Amino acid sequence: MGFFTRLARGRRAAAPTMLAAMSTIGAVTRNATGESARAMRTMRERIGAVRTVGRRANGEDDMGGFFDGVRGGASNTTTKGRFAGFSAHAVPANGFVGEDDSAPVNPFKIVDEELRAIGERMRAAVSSDIPALSTASEYFFKLGAEGKRVRPTVLLLLASAMTNGVMTTANVGWRETDHAPAHQAPADVRRRQQRLAEIAEMIHVASLLHDDVLDNAATRRGLRALNLEVGNKLAILAGDFLLARASVTLASLRNTEVIELLSRVLEHLVAGEVMQMTANPESLSSMDHYVKKSFYKTASLIANSSKAIALLGGHGEESAQLAYEYGKNLGLAFQFQDDVLDFIGSDSLLGKPTLGDLKEGIATAPVLFAVEEFPELSSLVERRFKHTGDVQRAHELVKQSQGIERTKTLAMQHCDMAIAAIDALPPAESAYANHCRRALKELAKRAVHRSK
Ligand code: FPP
Ligand code: MG
User: Fold this and answer.
1) What average pLDDT does this structure show over 113-127?
2) pTM for the predicted model, two decimal places
3) Candidates 201, 216, 262, 269: which one to mutate for ligand 1, based on the most atoms within 8 Å of Cβ?
């Protein structure tokens, strides 16, 4: 019986309960509205139970014995037969020399070569022989305009964090750019996972192009927004074109479950945007509505792509669900910290004016918490801060309330849940996989400790 199979059998009793507790947006909302500490305790206990069962099932602790001969040894290549030819992952570039829990981990550095390679692929994927279309669709894929590429970084790290020996690219230069055409089915797992990272980034950029038209934005990624450069019509069509090209790549994966997950993301992005745009006064003051919208707009893409990465890696439903939980909670933690920074950040650090949400008529978590202390805020929320002085008054009341602190706590809770999901994965099968898990946890911490 394989290592993962033994582990999965051991975990079976506890895991469904935990997953049920973790996976609903309802649970997130309850966290937001007062039962947070209890919900977190319960989840930690459940994850703890899963891990205990996991250890008992295979007779080892997380790492004990399993990586002997790997940790600190001259060779990082595992001796397990099914990892034959897996040394490119066990001895990666980018400064990784073995697992040392105290050494700082740089998530972006681990994947920088692979990011460069998929950046090159994306530039090819979004070009067109129609000059105006090419100019528009290539705009945010040019060197220097690519942004932080957080989504591909998370997805590639997750792919490596969950390696179980099914990857076959170790010997075929998986860090080099894959020049195969988008419609051609990639032969191996890592290439398919890289394509998923491309798809997620292309969907993200498409959604930003559409969003900037809807918001009449002037800047994006330090550049003039595309809508200002080429007009609304071409900016929208460029977004559609990116989605079309992403769809061809998605089809090349020949995996209907993954296609379904990513199609669901598109639905969620549109739903979240329309929820925000059309909320009635009651919904505008509802934390449930707010958290659901945030999931749709911000967290669904990374949650569903994370699950897709796990499925493409050949992992079972339980591990895939943990990948989903990591992505979902990372996305929500990121969004809630964004809400905090919109109140307490600095214009120059953020690259955009603070209080942007209030000015756009959107009540985010700090305001919704503040309403509980200052009910007079309700009417301002319901009229989307449209009257003269509303933005300033709302800002004053939020500052006097616990709203910002409570939102920070909420972000921290989601950061903790993201970390707990990584910790609940079956034990890492290589020191490198473990290193990538540390990087994923580091990303979750950075999401809530950032100031921009
Ligand atoms: C940023 O919101 C926008 C999104 C995260 C998603 C927008 C989704 C759509 C416009 C629906 C269409 C979707 C596709 C796939 C074409 P924001 O305005 O709150 O953040 P910002 O400050 O980055 O603009
Ligand atoms: Mg916007």
Assistant:
1) 93
2) 0.81
3) 269
